[in-house]
Amino acid sequence: MYYDPIKKSLGEVFNRTPLLRRLFYHLLDLLLLRTWHVHRELRQWSKGRTTEALNILDAGSGYGQYTYWLSGLSRKWQILAVDVKDEQVADSNRFFREIGRTNAQFAVQDLVLYQQPNTFDLALSVDVMEHILEDVEVFRNIHASLKDGGMLLISTPSDQGGSDVHADGETSFIEEHVRDGYNIHEIQQKLRTAGFERIEARYSYGEPGQISWRLSMKYPILMLGKSKLFFLLLPFYYLVTFPFCLILNWFDANVKHDSGTGLIVKAWK
Length: 269
What we know:
With 269 residues, the protein is an alpha/beta fold. 45% of the residues lie in helices and 18% in strands. The protein contains 9 helices and 7 strands. A 7-stranded mixed beta sheet has the order 3-2-1-4-5-7-6, with helices on both faces. α8 runs antiparallel to α9. The chain crosses the membrane at residues 229-251.
């Protein structure tokens, strides 16, 4: 299934007013399990840093929800959010101007080519690397763009069932993925090849998270892929499933997993 047309349709609905877009971000924060894991890591990173003038790169910003969240933590942080989609970048710049978030800027850039040497204290890459074939080149560019001591935070599917692929011969649930998921040792080795020395990796989307993902993401996306009329049914669907997803997300984000369909990786320059 191609996910981008569905994402575009959602964007068209929630881009109508700043209030709707803020609501959309809050819903994503609650529903998307990866956000729970990413926010947890960002809170840890941000301790004692909110009064510092820091530069942050959101590498593959998508809707811009992580830039929105980070820009609200400290006005002293300057955030550059890059993406390859012109329309999404333009929408995000317009929204951030409307709400007065002047410490964030969006730009069209290709991560395979983009490099800004010794500029950023933190780089964030959430569900991006599974879309890019030339991953080592991207890791090298981000490594070069980080200051000494800077950190890269990655969220991406693993090879333990990521992209809903559980056996040889199965194909990814999301057609835009160029890889179903990373082996936990593979991604660490690729980061070392790119120049990173200290690397930490753990699994996300354990058993609770996999159930939550199916309820909150897979089944709704399948429905929307069949017909846009399912937009009308989504509020009623989530009215039933939302409380269960919140509980499952909390458990997944607060329990250590021996395996999981997602990976959270931190690498320091």
